[in-house]
User: Fold this.
Amino acid sequence: MMETNPGGKCGQASRRWMGGWRVAALAVAAVAGSASGVEEDALLETAGRMHPALVHFPIALIITALLFEMVRIAIRHHRPSPAAIGCLLIAVGSAVVAAASGWVHADFEGLAGDSPVELHRWVAIASGSFALLALIFGIAARGGRDDDDDPRHVARRMYVLFLVLAAGAVGFAGHQGGELVYGEGYIFEPIFGKAEVDDADEVAFTPPSGAVPEVVDFDRDLLPTFTARCIKCHGPKKRNGKLRLDSLKELRASRYFDEIVVAGDPESSTLYERITLPKRDRDFMPKRGEPLSEWEIEAIRRWIEDLKPEADDDGPDDDLLGDLDDAINQALDQAGSEELVAVIDAVTKRGGYAGLESSGSNRVVVNWSVLSRPVTGEDLALLEPARQAIVELNLGGVGVTDALLEPVAAMTSLERLNISRSDISDRGLAAIGHLERLRVLNLYGSPISNASVETIAGLPALERVYLWRTFINDEGIAALREAKPGLEIVADTEEAQPEPEPVETEPVDTDDEPASDETDGG
Assistant:
């Protein structure tokens, strides 16, 4: 969704190695730009996008040279093939041009520094180097007698060796390039089927309508947008700019997280800046499709604004944790409950988050989704003393099972529950069917089916439910919409969003009598 500065030792080494090419390219672009009136960056970006076309020349020529030599070896000719030498000569020259365009392309697309891209780069450079060595030894082996006793036979052997290495490396580099564009396993997908990658594919998604929640939750409110619009370039398959947006944990893992998201300051955050630029701006995100909706932009802005800067780099790894002492003191002063303080302390020490929903409130928010391990029954048992005060519980992506829903069912004050990417069943979900105050339920990525429609429809206060990537199909969505007409459903089906209800209007009374007693202000 955005570009970040490339990093890593390999990326740094590659940038130093290619510094001369970059300077030369800028010089050429400056001259061409001044002559044509086109900006230098635009010319460089265009040159970079020519890489897929240019790279086919050295690939084809090196492999063709090897085929020529295989024929010569089969008919026992010891001197290198003139046609093969000619192919290598052109291949080495075109490889330099293709490599330069590829380097520029990776920089402009924010791919520099990614491990797959760096591997592709260096394998391609190796293939070009092998081709150059093959060319040198091939020229050296051209003279002399055509037998094994010729002193130049060693050069002949080295020529064939480097030619084989060049062909193998260029074939592997080409295969890598294809997978970078089309995804891993693309070639054999028709035979073996598409590889399953959790949360990696874009899906049809309609942004929620209405007011943005006062407290924005990453999994509940932002992750559906990121998965639908951004994960194709910033997910498990492709990590442009070493940035992943498929989970809060992966987003925070970016070495540029503090630039992408400046806690408490949306205007200084690259994430917010890129999605609010004019659409024609070259840095505008997302690159493809329509701009994000006002709801999505405001949700991202509010989420960044509500984040607190980390007080200690050696402390817990989530901005939501804040400072433990402040949370405990706040709980003591405002809630006056030793049990509540004990819960906050215990949850935080186990790597989760627990705190008051807002200043002056004794309503508790708990987030276990920040764990780097599956949640356990022991984790949920810590919440027992405060279960009647918990209004929001986030268990997204931490392996919730049916058994773990039993303590959740006892939290009768719950208003917002996130059990996305869980391992629950339809029977397990029925355990929370009695939560009368539940307003938002996130079931994204959970293996529930149409059998859960009755449970969901039976939640009396439910206002929004996330059924995206579940096994509830169009038929189930339609049944749920019919059973609960006012429910907002976020799902990857055409039946997901409720149609607006017609507004009934009273016929205009043309008589001179007042329409009701209320009109006279009495």
